[in-house]
Design goal:
alpha/beta, six-stranded parallel β-sheet, six-stranded mixed β-sheet, UDP-Glc/GDP-Man_DH_C_sf
Length: 389
Amino acid sequence: MRITVAGIGYVGLSNAVLLSQHNKVTAFDINTDRVDMINKKISPIVDKDVSEYLANKNLDLCAVNLPETAFSGAEYVIISTPTDYDTKKDYFDTSSVESVIEQVLKYSDTAVMVIKSTVPVGFTEMMREKYKTDRLIFSPEFLREGKALYDNLHPSRIIVGEKSKRAEIFAELLKQGAENKDVPVLFTGSTEAEAIKLFANTYLAMRIAFFNELDSYAEIKGLKTSEIIEGICLDDRIGNHYNNPSFGYGGYCLPKDTRQLLSNFGEVPNSIMKAVVDANVTRKDFIAARILEREPKVVGIYRLTMKTDSDNFRQSSIQGVIRRLESSGVSLIIYEPVLRDCKTFMGAKVINNLDRFKELSDIIVANRFSNEIEDVSEKVYTRDIYRRD
């Protein structure tokens, strides 16, 4: 099967690697640096499995930045370009997805387009109408940052937003590359599949918000958060997972997906969806207040990334904390190796000598703890109870 993957971030690249084990895959991206790295078998994203597969596996994968080369002759085109949330419009910015659709229609009369980018509910039907084409399918992804290929190799489920032979073929392509073959497969309407993605991520955000509010209560009352969580999670209906407190949910998906779902509700009555979004704001307010209670002169921010072993800090929760601390007038410094070429970030000085950073900081704020700061643990403020993501 000839497959093109448009957009080679963590969703696109993990799918490209997965599928290129058994198919001829072309990865398309406008970023020439990413294209060059993939052709040199180097991963442009932080994902140890992607790096290992690119370096050591026999993959039929090449990368290009010319749309005609990418889309001509493709049987399936997976669209995995970024769809950031536009707060002014209360809507995902889907321009990159629409651009790929236009290019595929220009260079191919037959390719089936499978949208993997997260989109508003009803988007696929809108695009079918707008471009007068029935070659569009939506299939949500459920991948964790830093473990995207692992999650493709061991999928929790495969959902394809169409009930057709071509949808079945696409599902089989995903199963073909997976190590876990016994995976649930669900075929739905395109709009239902879009709703599944947004509701699933909002549920996860709700769970994060719940345990964060539990932690806020325990911290104020002088209680042991871990004991409360352990007792609650012994209930099989709740389960001992996704329960580690943090500074709030953040990253690629949860902030934008929760806001988009809330926007999609429109006039539909709701309380929980709005509360989830509001709870994330409240948590950051609480964290900033707790830090300022210690009256530090210099606050050190240890890492901007959302998760351990990640290079992504887009929409990271600690940035919301930084904004609140900035407005209080406290002096801020940041340790973040990803910013090795930057002198400042969000108005704060970047110090990438870790020893110097530790020395200058009166308090070190860490969304996720690391052994790197174990030696100054008395300075560290974190709510990372279980030392894991």
